[in-house]
Amino acid sequence: DTAVSQTPKYLVTQMGNDKSIKCEQNLGHDTMYWYKQDSKKFLKIMFSYNNKELIINETVPNRFSPKSPDKAHLNLHINSLELGDSAVYFCASSQGGERSEQFFGPGTRLTVL
Amino acid sequence: AQSVTQPDIHITVSEGASLELRCNYSYGATPYLFWYVQSPGQGLQLLLKYFSGDTLVQGIKGFEAEFKRSQSSFNLRKPSVHWSDAAEYFCAVGLMDTGRRALTFGSGTRLQVQP
């Protein structure tokens, strides 16, 4: 019954590896997001998809590539992982425009060694 | 560009005491305003939101917030804090009519509750 789910919850990997994080929402929302929370708890938007179309792409290295196979899924693939990529990545979803509540997933803690 | 400031990084209150967490935003027009709470190891949960109308909004868990346009503030309050309120609190701004559906977050305030 989880509204927004992410897998895996923890991800530990070596520098240079490629990894993916998956996100699924069962709320029927039309917009999904990826946020990054750094070690100081600062949250920043990375990407936003509306009906499978990319609408926000912040200043994120092109090693990060989101993919939305359908409205309910938004995956994040990261190539050539770097130490600075270590963070907690949150997926979120919402229905409608700017005034809509965003529902957040539990987060994926990525540790790059 | 819009920004959100939470001046207090860390606040400690005694259980049963009142609480006020500060939030200031910088934006040319009235934004949509949110308060989220993050418990340790958890995702973010919406406490309350302001879009328009009554400037005092009620949220879940006994929280309320007041929008003050003249001060560009949206402070979060609770009259009596419970130990379970210990968490990280984030103020966030959503922009009107821009098509930009992402939130801009403040840096968070960590609340510690003493017995």
Descriptive key words:
heterodimer; A: 113 residues; mainly beta; four-stranded antiparallel beta sheet; globular; B: 115 residues; six-stranded mixed beta sheet; 12 strands
Most residues in contact, chain pair and counts: A-B, 27 and 28 residues
**Helical/strand content category of chain A:** mainly beta
Strand residues, percent of chain A:
over 45%
Oligomer: heterodimer
Tell me the helix content of chain B. under 10%
Arithmetic mean of pLDDT of chain A? 91
Determine the structural class of chain B based on helices, strands and strand pairing: mainly beta
Q: With helices defined by DSSP (H or I, 4 residues minimum), what is the helix count of chain B?
A: 0
CA(first)-CA(last) distance of chain A:
34 Å
Taking all Cα atoms into account, the compactness measure Rg of chain A is 13 Å
Secondary-structure element pattern of chain B, one letter each: EEEEEEEEEEEE
Count all strands of chain B and give the number. 12
| Overall geometric form of chain A | globular
What string gives the helices and strands of chain A in order? EEEEEEEEEEE
Largest sheet of chain A: 7 strands, mixed
Unreliably modeled segments of chain B: none
Strands of chain A, count: 11
**What is the mean pLDDT of chain B?**
91
